[in-house]
Amino acid sequence: MIPNFKAHPWHGVSAGEDAPNVVNVFVEIVPSDTIKYEVDKETGYLKVDRPQKFSNIIPALYGFVPRTYCDNEVMKLAVESGASDVTTGDHDPLDICVLSSHNIHGGGLFMEAIPIGGFKMIDGGEADDKIVAVMVGDHAFGHFRDIAELPDAEVKRLMHYFLTYKNLPDEPAKCRIQEVYGVEHAKKVIKASQKDYADKFGG
């Protein structure tokens, strides 16, 4: 009998055959979560990172693109965008939030998503890009192909979450968004993170 085997969601699954146009996403948290989960880098299992401190609820499915890593190549794109205080990537897989009209009850699953843009977020001198994507086949969001096509309120809702989820109300902002970029730059970020992954872990 062949023993059961679970591929590591970061290292054991590809970014997708058609990446960066369509990417695999490992979903860690969903909008109904009051706990922040993240993948344990050693085992590949979801673990509790921390309870959400405040009323901030992530407005989209949130996870990462497998076999990506944010280091020098991702940092260079941030510098090219005018972020003079950036010294490195955040040394994590590339973050991605996926818009969908469907109520998915929990993370720990894979889906295909179409990148449409992103946020050049700078967090304590680290490039911490957030790719924005739509779930393949989603009836409400699946037709969008660039972040500029989204309602402005949807973009601002995402931005507000990322700019405030780490802060107490009376604290100064810990991070900023250097720019909001469209689909073509999102693809550059994905490719850069794939190169950073290859440089760190091998092809």
Largest sheet composition: 5 strands, mixed, barrel
Question: Helical stretch count?
Answer: 3
Helix share, percent? 10-25%
Query: How many distinct folded domains?
Result: 1
Mean pLDDT: 93
Order of helices and strands: EEEEHEEEEEHEH
CATH class identity: Alpha Beta
Query: Structural class, please?
Result: alpha+beta
Named CATH topology:
Inorganic Pyrophosphatase
Keywords: Hydrolase, Magnesium, Metal-binding
GO molecular function, one term: inorganic diphosphate phosphatase activity
Protein name: inorganic diphosphatase
Pfam family, one: Pyrophosphatase
Structure description:
The protein is α+β, with helices and mostly antiparallel strands. The protein has a single domain (23-201), classed as Alpha-Beta Complex (Inorganic Pyrophosphatase), CATH 3.90.80.10. It is 20% helix and 30% strand. It has 3 helices and 10 strands. The chain has helices at residues 72-80, 152-164, 183-201, and strands spanning 23-29, 35-39, 46-51, 61-64, 88-89, 95-99, 109-123, 126-127, 130-135, 175-182. Strands 1-4-6-9-7 form a 5-stranded mixed beta barrel. A two-stranded antiparallel sheet has the order 2-3. Strand 7 and strand 8 form a beta hairpin. Helix 1 runs antiparallel to helix 3 (183-201). It is globular. The chain starts with 22 loop residues before the first strand and ends with a helix. The mean pLDDT is 93.
